Each structure stands twice: as structure tokens, then as C-alpha cells.
Amino acid sequence: MLAATIKKDLLLLLRDRGALGSLFLLPVVFIAVFGSIFGGGSDVAKVKLAVWAAPGDPKASSIRAALDESKMFEIQEQPDAARVSQASTDDDVVGLVIPAGVGAEHPVELYLDPAAPPQVSGPILGVLNGIVSTVINGPPASGDAKLVDRRAPPGKDILADVSGFQIAVPGNAVLFGFYLALTVALSFVEERRTGTWRRLLASPINRRMILVAKLVPFFLVGLIQFAFLFGVGIVVFEMRIAGSLFALAVMAACVVVCATTLGLFIASLGGTEKQVGSIGSICILVMGLLGGCMVPRVVMPPVMQTIGLFVPHGWAIEGYFDVLVRPGTGLIDVAPQAAALLGFAAVFFALASSLFDFENG
Amino acid sequence: MTALLALQGLGKDYGARKAVVSLDLEVQAGEIFGLLGPNGAGKTTTISMVSGVVTPTRGKAIVAGHDVCTAANAARASVGLVPQDLAIYEDLTARENLAFFGSLHGLRGGTLRDRLAWALDLSGLAGRADEPAKQFSGGMKRRLNLAAGLLHEPKLLILDEPTVGVDPQSRNHIFEAILALRKAGMTILYTSHYLEEVQALCDRIAILDGGRLIAQGKVGELLAAHAEVGFEVEVEGEEFAITTALAMAAAFAELDRHGHTLHVAPTGPLAPVINAIEGAGVRIVTIHTRRPDLEAVFLELTGKSLRDAE
């Protein structure tokens, strides 16, 4: 009896692709991503540093030479100081202006996104402080005057008092917002299981209209979830929204549209409640991981950062983050992120429409 | 009478498997038409095609003058489907379920309220209309399932095994509702593997087996054509004596043995059969007349028992 039970459960487990994915594939993906983030090694990406050093100034030239010797930076020489700040508006470029007479009176100007996480800004600040201080004062000692003046690149200002909630909300809002997809997918499974799906198909309504009608309530619930989460943040935790509320609402709508269509796509792959639950959870967790919900994409290796652009989560976090912490962020500023999310939604819906097996009721 | 439903060479394939090969039949307005056959015979696939749930691979299905493929919405609007599954939302009340299914068919406002009241009354659920369906008994859920298919006054009501798993009280309620609907002139396509139900309710039937139509007609006509009056003879005796009795009686009847019960279909008078059995030293315990039924029709047409075929 014992052997028969063991054999039966092994057979069931081996035939449950969702459970196998959760047990074997999911940990491997997480290990690979976290390992590549925190593992260091020889393939650590260099920081792109746009530099202008005042010509003819010996200390500026020394700092410039020391930067070349550092293995941390990929130097992009700039013709003047203005070009440095302009170049630093790129998300992956840091700007550095080394003025004539560099010292406590004229510190080097570092253009680094104020929103960059400590994992990114810390090493850059540490290395630059070390180089500049060594050139000017000899080996660095505590109490050195401020020799590196950190500034925000043009258009990258953030609120002076960014709260922990503003940092925590985007990743979590996106990760849990996309769990709506699982609810959507399971609702289709439930309709099929109970037989109500046959009844819907037997009604005088276009089949694609049935799909759309099924998605609308989830879209509304997603918006309510968003309003609730941000409402609690604002009212209870005094979270501030630096950008436009309208832009935030548009971003939320795009995220919810994307999540509901992702749910439809997962449903179109078919399967039982157990299979859809497992496969859907894996999809959402892995997408969340790659998109930067758990670890900021900016600290990931370049390859992982690029992969992150192929999941909607990365775009969603960027959009939310900008609206929350960067003053003056309006609809036009988050238009690329919103467009990307709608693009993902269109792809999900098109794939689901072609894959959905209406008659498998 | 005019045909409310006409199937012309209707068939459906799932990959290489032919679920329904090619069906030609007509259901007249106002009649209850039974689709009879074992599981896998193609009954559910047929009604799925008629109700627009499944697209036919070949042939045509015309409902109330509308082709289910080329005028799908008009055809679906003419059909009320009562699936075999309890296709209701358990967390919604009976009234909310019916309101939803009614609105799918375009019922609004006062019309919807009137139809709701009528359907709740017909299903005997008026007193519990505002309770969630999950609190209902199996029979009550099945009655709600039936009511949901009736709200929009379909021209053709399709009942797919409507009494599966139902207690006797609810079964009677469903039968009464079906007979009331027939009286009101509704056309009903009824599938079941309960032969007694089909025999009692249906004006005409079609027998399906392996996706093929093997017979159709009025119940009485099929019984007359394919089922004979027979006897069930219960016997006692030694095995050798019973075997001898079967051999001797075979000259006067077709015999089929099930343990100590002999199914006897005499080719002439019964007396020589009895004499042959008793002459072999076998004692006859009881003799019952076996009325012709659809089970016998199915056996005659397919060579197998309907229940064995399931």
C-alpha cells in the first residue's frame, strides 16, 4: 500500500509541469539572477563616465590620468563641461567635470542620478573620493574637505526628502499589481470547470467580445487596488507624489491593462487550475525579478538589464518611480514607459486571441 | 409541422477522431426529441454544435431558419442551452444568476424582471431567490440550471442530461417543468442515457452510437420495429440440466442466459419452451413478461446493451 501510494504520487508529481517548474526551474532562475548581481567576478560591467578635465591644470590632468588607471570606469571624453551634464542624462552614464584649480574651493562635479540606489552610487562615490583626495591631499584621511560635489543630471532632480515608501512602493506595486494576471487566468479556468463557459459561448455574443467583457471587471479591480495602495501610502504614511497625479493614473491604467492581458495570455495556454496556478506564479515571479521588482535593474549586469526590457515590469517600475520621486514628471515624461506597457498588452492580447481554445470547455 | 431544427450531414472531428460522423435529422416545432446513446456516442458534441458552442467540421445545422455558422448570433439567440454541468455561479444568488444569463440574451428592465419571476416560479425557487446558489441542494441547483436556459424564451430548448444526480423530488419537478413547456409549445431536444426518461417524455428519438445515427423515429415505431415481447424465466437446477434445457428450448425460442435467469424470445407459442426446460429436469421458479423497451431496441440495433456500452 505504501509503495503504491509513493509510486502514484511520484507519477502525479512528474506529470505536473507547474510543480516541477516551481521546484527546479524557479530556484535556478533566481540563483542565476542573484548570483550575477552579487557574485562580482571579472565580468563586472564598467561604469560609463563622461569626463571633461580643465586643460593645462596639473591636478586636473593627474585626476584624469588616475581615472584611466582605475579599472572601474569606461571613460567617454567630452569637449566641454556642458556636454558632460548633457551626457549624464542617459540613464547609464555618470558625468564628471574636473575644473581648473580643483580642490576644496572648486570640487569636481559629479553628475549622478540622485535616485540611484546605494549599491550603484556608493562604489562610484568611494572610488572618486579616493582618487581626487589622493591627488590633492595625498592618501585620504577622515575629515578631508568635500572634494566631490554630487549633482543631479539635468532633468533628474528628485524630492529632497524621498521617503522609504517612495522607494518601496513602485517595485511592490508592480509585483503585486501583476498578480492580477493570475486571478484573471484562474477565472477562465473556473468558468471552464463549472461549465458556465459553455453557457457564455452559447449566448448571442461575439467570442472576442466575451474575452474583453471578462477582462473589464479585472481592469476595474486593478485600478481600485492601485487607488487603495497609493491612497494608504499618501494618507497613512504621508507619501508624497513628486510628479503629476494624472501621469500616475495613466501609468497605473497601463500597468493594469498589461496585467489583465497577461492573465488572458496565461489562460490561453490552457491547463487545470493547478497547472495555471503554478505556471502563472512562476511567470509573474520571474518577470518581476527580471524587471527589477526585487532588486533594482540598475545594479544588475548589462545582459540582465537588457533582458529586463523584455518584460513589462521594468518599464512599469521606471514610470512609477519617476512620477513618485522626480518633481515635475508629467505624462510626456512617462509616455515611453506607458507606450511600452500598452505594446506589451497588445502583444499579450494578440497572442491570447490566436491561442485561446474557445471550444475546450 | 415545420422543422425547427434541421441537421444536414452535420459532423465534427477532433484531430483524427470523428466525434460525430454525419447526422441528418429534423426536429419539428413543438415536439420533444430525444437523443439517445451511451457516453461517447456524440450526443453532447451534437448539441454543442447546435447551440453554437462548437463549430461543425462539416455539414449544416439550421435552427429556426438560422445557420449556426453563417448566422451564428441569430441561431444562438433561438437556443436555450441547459448543460449537463451545473453551469451556474455558486457565489451568486439564484436571482443574480438568472439576471446575468438573461442580460446575455438582451433582456433588460421590466422584461427581465417579468422573466425572472416566471423562471423562479417554474423552477420552484421563488422562495429562495436571494440565497447564494452554493447553499442549494443538488436538485435545486439543477433546477436553477434549467431556469437559466429558459429565461429568454428560446424557440429550441436543449436539455443535456438534465436529471443526472438529482433526487426524486427534484426529478419530478424537472419532469413537470418539461411537460409544462411542451404544453406551452416549446420545442425540446433532450439527451439522456436514462432510457425510461426518454421513453416517457419524448415524442421521437434518434439513437446515436459511435458518432453515427443508427435509428430515428417515434418511440412506439422503434419499439415495434426493433423490440420483441419476451419473457424472463428464473430457473433452478443442476448446471448440466440448465445447459441441456437451453439446447432443447433453442428449437422454439431465442434464448439468452444471465445466471439463473433466461431471457426468452419465443418464435411461436411459449408452451413448447416451458416443456423443453422442464423436460430437461430444470425447475421453473418464476416467469415474467418482458415489455419491449429502448434498451432492447439498442441491443437489437447495435448488438450491445446500452448500459454495457457506457
What features would you highlight for this structure?
A: 5-stranded mixed β-sheet; 14 helices; 7% strand; elongated; B: 310 residues; alpha/beta; Rossmann fold; 6-stranded mixed β-sheet; 4-stranded antiparallel β-sheet
What would a concise description of this structure say?
In chain A, 63% of the residues lie in helices and 7% in strands.
Q: What's the helix and strand layout?
A:
The complex is a heterodimer of chains A (361) and B (310).
Chain A (H helix, E strand, L loop, with lengths): L1 H13 L2 H22 L8 E7 L4 H12 L3 E5 L3 H7 L5 E6 L9 E4 L6 H20 L10 E4 L12 H14 L2 H15 L1 H6 L5 H29 L9 H24 L4 H19 L10 H7 L3 H14 L5 H25 L6
Parallel strand pairs in A: 1-2, 1-3, 4-5
Antiparallel strand pairs in A: 3-4
Chain B lengths: L2 E12 L2 E12 L3 E5 L6 H8 L7 E6 L2 E2 L4 H6 L1 E4 L11 H11 L4 H14 L15 H13 L5 E5 L7 H16 L3 E6 L2 H7 L2 E6 L2 E7 H8 L3 E7 L2 H11 L3 E6 L2 E6 L4 H9 L3 E8 L3 H9 L3 H4 L1
Parallel strand pairs in B: 3-8, 3-9, 6-7, 7-8
Antiparallel strand pairs in B: 1-2, 1-4, 4-5, 9-10, 11-13, 11-14, 12-13
Helix pairs in contact in B: 3-4, 3-5, 5-6, 8-11, 9-10
